[in-house]
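Sanity check

After download, print the first record. It should look like this:
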Amino acid sequence: MVIVGLTGGIATGKSSVAEMLRIRGMHIVDADLIARKVVEPGRPTYTKLFAELGDEFFDAQNGILNRSKLAIKMASRRIRSVVNLVKPLQSGTFGVVEEIIINMQIEIKSMILVHYAASF
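Expected structure tokens:
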């Protein structure tokens, strides 16, 4: 099995390339979608981020992470504190990606594309 990573910034064509490859038979793991799911209320990564950030970055009504507000705050912080915030998200996301790939049990000759944004 060959695992290929596709990454890049916002609006660089990652989704378009991934869709073209999916149509041609490549197995796609959308880590962007997974990254959104691991921060849903009640998930372990959500709990870690909430403990680190407090309620400032979470909607008071539904508890959902306000990603745009967090992105603005991260842009203004020093690198060390940003890394501390991103670690739970990355470990949660990559743990799920790894589990999906293992569970696919695809023939060794198959290829899997992991589609992931450069930022979370």
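If your output differs, re-run the checksum step. Summary of this record's structure: The mean pLDDT is 80.
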